[in-house]
Design goal:
The longest helix has 13 residues. The protein is globular, with a radius of gyration of 20 Å. The chain has eight helices and 19 strands. 19% of the residues lie in helices and 32% in strands. It has a ten-stranded mixed sheet, with helices on one face. It is α/β, with parallel strands linked by helices.
């Protein structure tokens, strides 16, 4: 390990160490995740594209990296990793690699010996900021703004693909979909799934429902996806639609609502969400930095779930039509599966 710096656009500098293969200036939007486990799933989640992830749990890497069946994609998508203590070895029967070696394989810079508690306090004060993992004397000059980056186009599939031979056909819009979402959907033997790129126009095709996935970046850059969804709602108002995370924000844009950037986002596996109109709270896995503005929602839509930590919208639904979406991840990966029933609900609506 060699000396390195974590430099924030707001001026703060944290001293740390990186493996010798990390070179130069490595940019990203710095965010924090408060989960105790799940670093493999987090780093392979396409929603973290363009972001340097600070893990707040004191030691990371102690159980290694399991095989690809547990990943959320086929590679690391995060722009970098920040930890307090990088475990020097791992001990788990499913482990196949150390975290450090895995990051090297995908050329993902990782910096250790950072005071992650102090860094998280800075991010909670400023909000998420751009920054860089820096090796050498050169300092960052121009920090990227994640809202200026077209990240969804980098993580969507290239061509449509079909799975299953069920009697119900679902269009699955891939905006950077987590593998565990796909695993859940593929479990339903009564479905034919047509997985399509984020900008694919499916409105002239035959289908029974639409599913919109999670993904990275600013939802305002997904106007094409929202426009197609809006047209689908107008042409086939009775066909069920369900969205997750970015899919929820895209649904909001399609119905004329506004989205906004949260100060420091929600990234963990223990966010409590209230089912509106009940006393039932669910623990949820979350990873998002944007939300739907409640004040801009049309009158025929309502809040479905609400975050009990900060009262932000965690789900919306139409008051009469079978349209709904959630900000959290009912498929977990990592996290609790308290809300996995939402997949059943969608399939039953078809």
């Amino acid at each position: 390990m060699i000396p390195a710096k974590l430099v924030l656009q707001t001026g703060e500098v944290f001293e740390g160490k990186v493996p010798t293969w990390v070179k130069g200036i490595n940019y990203g939007e710095i965010v924090f995740n408060t989960g105790m486990v799940g670093y493999t799933e987090v780093l392979t989640d396409p929603s973290y594209k363009g972001q340097i992830v600070c893990f707040t749990y004191p030691m990371i890497g102690n159980y290694g990296v399991e095989n690809q069946k547990h990943w959320e994609s086929d590679q690391i998508h995060a722009a970098g990793v920040i930890v307090s203590e990088l475990a020097p070895f791992y001990a788990r029967v499913q482990g196949e690699s150390s975290l450090q070696a895995w990051c090297e394989k995908y050329n993902t810079p990782i910096i250790a010996d950072i005071d992650t508690r102090a860094l998280t306090k800075v991010l909670r004060h400023h909000g998420v900021v751009s920054g860089a993992i820096v090796v050498g004397k050169d300092l960052p000059k121009k920090y990227p703004n994640i809202s200026d980056l077209d990240l969804v186009s980098e993580v969507t599939i290239d061509e449509p693909l079909t799975h299953g031979q069920g009697e119900k056909t679902v269009i699955v819009v891939d905006c950077g979909m987590k593998a565990n979402i796909w695993r859940y959907l593929c479990e339903y033997s009564n479905l034919t799934l047509k997985r399509v790129p984020y900008d694919y126009d499916y409105t002239k095709e035959s289908y029974d429902g639409v599913f919109i996935s999670n993904g990275p970046g600013d939802p305002a850059r997904c106007q094409t996806t929202a426009n197609v969804l809006k047209e689908a709602m107008a042409k086939s108002p009775q066909k069920p639609i369900f969205g997750i995370c970015l899919g929820s924000q895209i649904m909001g844009i399609a119905i004329g609502a506004k989205t906004y950037k949260l100060k420091f986002g929600h990234r963990a596996q223990n966010h409590p969400c209230l089912l509106e109109g009940s006393n039932r709270s669910y623990l949820t896995s979350q990873n998002h930095g944007f939300a739907v503005d409640e004040a801009t929602m049309p009158e025929n839509w309502e809040v479905w779930f609400r975050n009990l930590n900060d009262n932000t919208i965690q789900g919306i639904k139409h008051k009469e039509l079978p349209y709904s979406s959630v900000q959290f991840h009912p498929e977990a990966g990592p996290g609790p599966v308290d809300t996995a029933w939402l997949f059943d609900r969608f399939v039953e609506q078809l």
